[in-house]
Specification:
Elements lengths: L2 H9 L5 H11 L6 H13 L2 H17 L1 E2 L6 E2 L5 H4 L7 E5 L2 H10 L5 E4 L17 H10 L4 E4 L5 H14 L5 E4 L15 H9 L2 E2 L5
Parallel strand pairs: 3-4, 3-5, 5-6
Antiparallel strand pairs: 1-2, 6-7
Helix pairs in contact: 2-3, 6-9
Length: 214
């Protein structure tokens, strides 16, 4: 056997380049190793073509058609998300969160009936994220223009989360709005999305004045 052919056969991991491309794509997802990616790719091959087409179409629609709420920056299908469009919610109370996952976590508690404001992250100089990279100015404008009585910080209890809360608090301090923070039922250093629903719900209900948290 020629050395070139032998070397090529030894380096080939899959019998199909198309399969290998699919495994490479799937394994690029967070938490998906190559073994899991291979299992998923083979599962797709066993299903009918219509199933795979629907799967791919759902992902393509998510990427191309999803919108962000013009008011709170949550993901949605229209200009306003379902929460902001719900007139039964208390629009005078705004809960400030880091990302969309925190909105879902708090909603799952069933303990909060206000509305949200998604910052899109927290201030992190080490990662090159400053106040201008977040939806902080739009929050300040909401407080100025709408009848907002209370702003609740529900950011992760990390150094970056606390830094972000303090920065926003200084921005809001002259606007006469009540500023509170969820109670420390969520342990210091924890991220909101990983808190259990009971603990997170109690932290929202038993929130405290921001000045008392320092």
């Amino acid at each position: 056997m020629p050395d070139g052919i032998k070397c090529k056969q030894m380096n080939q991991k899959y019998s199909s380049a198309l399969l290998e491309n699919a495994v490479n794509a799937l394994s690029s997802l967070p938490g998906i190793g190559r073994k899991t990616a291979l299992r998923l790719a083979l599962y797709m091959l066993r299903r009918d073509v219509d199933y795979t087409d629907r799967f791919v179409s759902a992902l393509a629609s998510l990427r191309h058609d999803v919108k962000y709420c013009r008011m709170c920056h949550n993901i949605c299908d229209d200009e306003l998300c379902a929460i902001c469009a719900d007139l039964s919610r208390d629009h005078s109370v705004v809960c400030v969160v880091e990302n969309i996952k925190e909105v879902m976590a708090i909603e799952n508690t069933g303990q909060f009936r206000g509305v949200y404001h998604v910052l899109g992250g927290v201030i992190s100089p080490m990662d090159g994220i400053g106040p201008g990279d977040l939806e902080i100015d739009s929050l300040v404008e909401r407080v100025k223009e709408e009848n907002i009585k209370e702003v609740i910080f529900a950011l992760s209890t990390t150094m970056e989360g606390d830094m972000t809360s303090f920065f926003i608090y200084k921005k809001l301090s002259s606007l006469g709005v009540k500023v509170s923070v969820i109670s420390r039922g969520v342990s210091i250093g924890d991220e909101i999305e990983y808190a259990d629903e009971i603990t997170l719900g109690r932290s929202i209900v038993n929130r405290i004045d921001f000045n008392q948290s320092k």
